[in-house]
Amino acid sequence: MLSRRQFGRITLAGIPLSMAFGKINSTVDGVRLGACTYSFRSFPRTPGQDDVDAVIQALKECNAGITELFSPDVEPAPEGGFRMRGPEAQKARDALRQWRISTPVSHFQEIHKKFSNAGIDIYAYTMNYRTDFTDEEIDATFMQAKGLGAHTIASSTTLEMAKRLAPFADKHEFLLALHGHSNTKDPNEFSSPETFMKGLAMSPYFRINLDIGHFFAAGFDPVAFITENHQHITHLHIKDRKKDNGPNEPFGEGDTPIKGVLVLLRDKHYPIPALVEYEYKGAGTPVEEVKKCMAYMKQCIEGTGA
C-alpha cells in the first residue's frame, strides 16, 4: 500500500504507477501489449555506438512492458551509416560479422540487466538471417539471444535459409519464430499458412511470429489462423494495412481486423503478446505514434475502440 506522501511524489514526478515500483505493467484484461523497438528505427545514431538507452527510454515513455528488441539497437552503428553501397557496405558487413562473433555473452547480459532494471521484458530478439550469414555468426546470435534473456529469436528470413537455421535451433534448444510478409508470389517467402507449415516442419523449435497486417494484406484471415495455430505462435506484430497488399495505415484506418485479433486473445486467454510495429507515415514522433497505437489496442480490448 502506498502512503499518501509516496503517491504524491510519484504523481508529481510524472511516473506511471504501473512502473513506479519495478516492472512496467502494460497488460490489459489479460492481453500483454508492448512494442517492437524497430518502431524507433528513425532515432539518430552515433557511429560506433548502440541505441540501447534511447529505446529503453522510448519504451518507458510508451509504458510498454514487453518488447521485441531489434538487433541493430544493440550493435554498433556503422561508421558510414546504414545506406552504404559497394565496397564500403561490404566492409561494414564484415565488421559486423566479426563483432557478433567476438563480442562476449556478458555484453548482452548487461543489456538484459538494463532492460530488466527498467521493468521491460525482452520477449524476442530480432535477427533477420540472410544467406551471407556464416555458421559461426549464426551460432553466435543464438548465444546473444540467450544472454539477452529473450524467449525467442524473431526472424524475417526465407524457407531456404530456415533449412540452415534448423540445426542451430535444435542444438541450442531455443525457439526461432518465423516472421512473414505479404509477397505470396515468391515461394521462398513466408507469407501464407502453407509456407508457415513448411517452416514448422523443419524443427521442433520453430514457431511463428505472425504479423497480422502483412498476413491480412496477403489475403488471409489472422483471426482464423490464430485460432487454429495459437500453440505455434510466439507473438504478434500489430499493424494496420489495407487489403489486397494495400499500404500501412494509422491504427483504425486500415482493413486489418486488429480488434478481432485482440478480443480473441482476451477471450481465449491465449498467452500471445501483441506488439506494435510502427510502420505507417505518422504525423508525430515515433514515440507519439506508438503511444497512439498502444491506446488504440487498449480501447479495442476494453470494448471502446472501433
Textual characterization of the structure:
The protein is α/β, with parallel strands linked by helices. The chain has one domain: TIM Barrel. It is built from twelve helices and eleven strands. The protein has an eight-stranded parallel beta barrel with strand order 2-3-4-5-6-7-8-11, surrounded by six helices. A two-stranded antiparallel sheet has the order 9-10. α7 links the parallel β5 and β6. It starts with a helix and ends with a helix.
Shape category: globular
* Uncertain segments: 1-20
Q: What is the CATH superfamily label?
A: Divalent-metal-dependent TIM barrel enzymes
| CATH structural fold name | TIM Barrel
Number of domains: 1
Could you give the topology of this structure?
Layout: H1 4-13, H2 17-20, E1 27-28, E2 31-36, H3 52-61, E3 66-70, H4 86-102, H5 105-117, E4 121-126, H6 135-147, E5 152-156, H7 159-172, E6 176-179, H8 193-200, E7 206-211, H9 212-217, H10 222-229, E8 233-238, E9 240-241, E10 248-249, H11 258-268, E11 274-276, H12 286-302
Parallel strand pairs: 2-3, 2-11, 3-4, 4-5, 5-6, 6-7, 7-8, 8-11
Antiparallel strand pairs: 1-2, 9-10
Helix pairs in contact: 4-6, 5-6, 6-7
Please give a quick description of this structure.
By secondary structure, this protein is of the alpha/beta class. The chain has helices spanning 4-13, 17-20, 52-61, 86-102, 105-117, 135-147, 159-172, 193-200, 212-217, 222-229, 258-268, 286-302; strands at 27-28, 31-36, 66-70, 121-126, 152-156, 176-179, 206-211, 233-238, 240-241, 248-249, 274-276.
